[in-house]
Amino acid sequence: MIRALGRRALSLLLALIAASVVIFVMLQAVPGDPAAFMLGMNASEDAVAALRAELGLEGPLVVRYLAWISGMLGGDFGTSYTYRVPVAELVSERIVVSAPLAVMALVLSTVIAIPVGLIAAARRGGVADWGIMGGTQLGIAVPNFWFAMILVLVFAVKLRWVSAGGFPGWDAGLWPGVRALLLPAIALALPQASILARVLRSALLDTLDQDYIRTARAKGLSRRATVVRHALRNAMIPVLTILGLQFSFLLAGAIIIENVFFLPGLGRLIFQGITQRDLIVVQSVTMLLVFAVILVTFLVDLAYTFADPRLRRR
Amino acid sequence: MTQTLKMSVAAFALMASGAWAAQDSIIIGMQLEPPNLDPTGGAAAAIDEVTYANLFEGLTRFASDGAVVPGLAQSWSVSEDGLTWTFDLRPGVIFHDGTAMDSADVVFSLNRARAEDSTNAQKALFAGIADVSAPDASTVVITLDAPNGNFAFNMAWGDAVIVAPESVATNATQPVGTGPFRFVEWAKGDSVTLERFDAYWGAAPALTRATFKFISDPNAAFAAMMAGDVNAFPVFPAPETLANFDADPRFSVIVGSTEGETILAMNNANLTDVRVRKAISHAIDRQAIIDGAMFGYGTPIGTHFAPHNPDYVDLTGGSAHDPDMARALLAEAGATDLRLSMALPPPSYARRGGEIIASQLRAVGIATDITNMEWAQWLEQVFRGKDFDLTIVSHTEPADINIYARPDYYFQYDNAGFQALIETLGITADPDTRTTLLQDAQKMIAADYVNGYLFQLAKTGVADSRIEGLWQNAPTQANDLTGVSWRAGP
């Protein structure tokens, strides 16, 4: 167990190093000089040169890479070219929007998917199953940005229950903050819930065919208890895998959703960073997201061992 | 349960009061967020859209009609030889941090802008300054290398605002100026909030609070306006929805002009034959582009000059839509099978307009290879690298016909006659002579078919119909809130 964990940690480290090199090299290859972009069309050559020097864009590639990495290790993510404030400060401002949004979407999709998946599996072939299969198919097919726009038109423009977007900040209180994230979280969660429900249904159907289910039924357990106590637990492995994968989809989806709802989150920060050639922001935030995804994958691996005791012995 | 109920009731009450009661505050929508709030350290138009006339002021300023009027200087005089400009500063001007503004601040600001290591985006505005001195606390004397009839105009730009040495280092994030509003908060990615500055030297604005909210997605901008989250969107990014707002009595649509000459720029170093450039100009149907790409908003132009400028000459007739003539010119020049690259930056005038122009060019036998680019890439490859045949861009700087006198400018027009003309213009102060020179300049570049002149970019905005005093036109990219107020009544 310990050795297995060590091996996983080592591969995690190697993945991080590889990712950092790829991110750094790719962003160097992106056309467009940040300094020239910032100063625009009328800028003189010496003003651009002065700004390049000020931003630390001069010097050999390897030196700049090492400076970036060693800074990151010490918690220094660099200074944003355009905003002129530490990237760490920008990230901490944005993560208080993005992280709650991702968590809300994840919780919401799980809360929707588990009962829906259970019902579909229990009523296999019935009307409820057909309805759920059709509904989830639609949920997967509908692009989330389109769904988000429909939500805005209905709930913000027509009904005026919520504002069309924006984020008041947590200083304004818990409820206004949660309220601002509600529609975005629903827009993000719907496709995920659909996928999750379908995966759960097929995983349940697989386990329901197993001998131990028949045994449980034979010893007198009710249908409901059998599904919840035996089938659900054994169907959790594929569900956990999907949940882990969904985390990275949520991060990617947030880039679009944050634009639709003009939320000041990490996704919009990256988007803006790319168009404004604020490469240090793109570089550091992407690295942070890679780290988050790798970490979640690692945690999901750990969670397997809780869901399935057999995996602990390996 | 009762607790949550109470909370939601309170939240609703809070929302309602924000939406209806506050008639002395305003929420302005903007598509792009400023990268920083220091107008002397970046080119982004969004910086001026927040700070110009609100937070920062210069010696002179632009009025809503584009005229140059006194700013921090209440008057100025020019010496006989045109080399010495004396500015008489307004008394009692205070920076938002409480320090007084005097001639030392002006000397500091101008010397900083023209210094060797200056990162001012419009450094050329200060290039002719030989010396700046302050004989006393309320007088500034500026000596120029050569007479410059445009100097008061140059000092009105957002890049020439007066800053204080004590606060200059933090202006990017904590701007301290002399304007009628002071900076309160910047929730990055979301909004910038300003508050009325009570110690302002001039008339107090009607608004006590102003929030600039950043909404980049056009659909989101539409929803935010419709839902009442934003009171005004002076440069509205979704022109296709303007008809909806026009039909709705809650909103007014504000259509004005900008300083943006939108052109099909041609690389004169590649397209050396004037007959080919003339053919391209005649192949273009301006009205089709305005209707197809701009939803009918925009004024056709025939040269690089704003139609609302009194010195404008209408030269659109010289490059009227005439595909037959275009084909004949191409045949005469032996330019059959012409294949040109066309680089398109992100704005819709370029992306949509580019598709339309490509089909118009195809009709006269010119093939185009379109490449869509982001601004950063466009600046590097097209603007600096000059690696292009055609591109579409709006030149938003006011009165910028002098860029044609720079042979190394990206479209590479090199005409000694034009360069001499601009040089003469620079040292001419007589208004009538200036008018003649400016009109000659317009005619010269039109006759040389330097670029395809398309249209003057319109400023299309949406606002709550109860708001008064927003700028209709954009002599510079700004949201001057000093004269904005809510109309009383329902």
Automatic annotation (TrEMBL), chain A:
It is found in: Cell membrane. CDD domains: TM_PBP2. GO terms for cellular component: plasma membrane. Its main location: membrane. The chain crosses the membrane at residues 95-120, 141-161, 239-261, 281-304. The keyword Membrane applies. It holds the Pfam family BPD_transp_1. Residues 95-300 form the ABC transmembrane type-1 domain. It is a multi-pass membrane protein. Keywords: Cell membrane, Membrane, Transmembrane, Transmembrane helix, Transport. GO terms for molecular function: dipeptide transmembrane transporter activity. Belongs to the binding-protein-dependent transport system permease family. This is Glutathione transport system permease protein GsiC. It comes from Thalassobacter stenotrophicus. The gene is gsiC_2.
UniProtKB/TrEMBL annotation, chain B:
GO terms for cellular component: ATP-binding cassette (ABC) transporter complex; outer membrane-bounded periplasmic space. CDD domains: PBP2_NikA_DppA_OppA_like_6. Residues 1-21 form the signal peptide. InterPro entries: Peptide/Ni-bd (IPR030678), SBP_5 (IPR039424), SBP_5_dom (IPR000914). Its main location: periplasm. The keyword Signal applies. One of its GO terms (biological process) is peptide transport. It is found in: Periplasm. Residues 68-395 form the Solute-binding protein family domain. It comes from the Bacteria. Keywords: Signal. GO terms for molecular function: peptide transmembrane transporter activity. Belongs to the bacterial solute-binding protein 5 family. This is Dipeptide-binding protein. The gene is dppA_2.
